[in-house]
Every structure is written in C-alpha cells, then in structure tokens.
Model the fold of this input.
Amino acid sequence: MIRRLFYMGLGAFGAVWTMRKLQALHPNHLARRAVRNAGGALEQARDLAADALRGAAEREIELRSRFGLDTVENPYHSNVKDGR
Done:
C-alpha cells in the first residue's frame, strides 16, 4: 500500500513537472523571456560602452598631462607647426 502511494506521488510530481516544462515552451512565454533577456543585454551593452568611454577619457587626460599637451577642449597649440 505504501509503495503504491509512493509511486502515485512520484507520478503526480512527474506530471506537474512535465506540464511546467511544456508551458515554458509556449510561444507567448518564449517571446516574453526573449524580450526580457534582450532588454538586459541592451542595458549591459550600454553600461560597457559608458565604462569604456569613461576609461578612455581618463587615460587621454592622463597622457595629455604626462606629455604636457593642452586640455582636451583645446588640443592644438597655436605656435606649433603640425602640417595644417
């Protein structure tokens, strides 16, 4: 009797698990999940681009100060011949 209850419970668990997996493959659910993942990927790409631009600006300022160049806003000396 206990063995029969165990297998009935196991079968019920398997049926619920299978139904949840099948519902996860429903087209509406897949579309919602794809949109959610795409939004997260877009946000990560924006963060990466912002970090890269910030790092490049900091490095440029560091190099300009090391080599004694003007600021980023005015990168050219008026008394330097550079081929322009």
